[in-house]
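Late entry, written up from scratch paper. The run itself happened at the end of the previous shift, but nothing got recorded in the book at the time, so transcribing now.
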Amino acid sequence: MQTNRKKLLTPRTMVILAMISTIAFILTWLVRFPVVPAVGFLRYDPKDIIIVIGGFLFGPMAAFLVTVVVALIQMFTISATGWIGFIMNVISGTAFAVTASYIYSRNRTLRGAIIGLVAGTIAMTGVMMVWNYLVTPWFMGVSREMVVSLLVPAFMPFNLFNGIVNSSLTLLLYRPMVLGLQKARVLPEPSTPAKTKTFNPALIAVSVFVLLTAGIWSAVITNSANVDAVDGAIVRLTTETVLHHPHDSPNSISTNLNLPAVGRSSTDISWESSAPGIIAANGVVNLPSVPTEVVLTATVSTGWFILSASEVAEFTFLVSPEVSHETATELAAQALTLESILGRNEGADAVTGDLVLPTEGRFGTAITWASSDSGIVGTGGTVYRPSPGNAEITLYATISRGGHSLAGTALTFNLTIVAVD
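Output as recorded:
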C-alpha cells in the first residue's frame, strides 16, 4: 500500500480531491440506512471510505478538506439536521479519516494502514460519544439522562460499526482505486516498487468475513427498524385521522375522507376500498342512494426486498345516503356551531387567537364567510387583535349546494376580540 506523496495544493491534486469529494457525496446520497433502531438519526453511509483513500493518497490535510466539503454539500442537499449535522459530520470524519491518514503518512505500509484505521475507529467512537453527550440533549430536546442511557447501547456500537465496515472496505478498495487512477493517468506510476505486499489472501478473507457479518447485522437491525416504523405508523393511523370533517363519524360519512399516502417515519400507505364507487382510494366520497357500509384497507409498508415490513389496518364506515340540496344545506347548518369555529379560544366573548372557519360542510356543501371588519377577523379565520380596546365583530356564513343557499341568524356569529395588552 504505497504511493508517491504529492504536494496538497497543486492544480492536479485539487482536481483529484474534487473528484473524490463528488464520489463520496454520491455514495452518501445513494447508500444510507439506520443502524440503531433506538436512535433513528444514526444512519450509516460510506463516504468515509473514499475520504480515507484520499487521505492515504495525499495526506491528513486532504482528508480534512474533503470531509468539510462533503459535509457542507450534504448540509445543503440531503441532510435534515442543518448546521449541527454539518459540525457533527466534520468532527466524526476528522476523528476517523484524519487520524488514519496521519498514522499512514508516518508508516506507508499495510501495517501502518491497519494501525491507522483501528486508531481512527477508536478515536471516532470516543470523540462522538463525548459530542453526542454534549449536543444531542439540546438538539433533540431530550434529557441528558436519556442520552447517557444510550451512549453504550446505541452511540458506541453505531460508531464502531461505521469504523469497522469502512476500514474493511478501505483495505479492499484502496489498491484497486489507486491502480485505476494510475491507469487513467490521473496518478503517476510509482517510481519504486512497493516493499511490502498490499494485500494477501488472509487479509481479503478477514475483510470479507467482517463485511458479511456487518451486513447481516445491518440487515437484522434495518428490518427491526422498519418493523418499528410500520408499527408506529399503524398506531397513529386512527379513525379520527381519517375523518376529514369534525361532524362526520364512522356511522355517518357525508364528506370526503383524509387518506394519507405517507405515514410516520416516511412509511408508505396504500388504500383499497370495498366499494370504490362510493369511497375511492383517494378518499373521495360519492353519496349512495341508501346507507352503505364500506371497508377501507390501509397497507403500511417500508423498506424493500427482504428488508421490507408491512402491516394492514381496516376501517369500516357507514356512508350516509344522498339528500336533496335543501336538506344538505340544513344539515350542514346544524353542524356549523359557535363551538366548532372557536378553535382554541375559550369563548365568543374572549377571542385572542385564530378561528376555524371551514369552507366545506357536510354532504358536499360549500361554506363562504363574510366579516363585519376584515381588518380584525379575516374570512380565513385569522385574528388581528385591536389596540387599544376590544372589538365587537360579526361573522356571516353562507352554506350552498346545487344552487340552493342558506344564510340567516343561525349562521351569524358575534364575537368579542380582546385587545392587545
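The chain has three domains: 11-199, 236-322, 326-417.
(Scratch paper discarded after transcription.)
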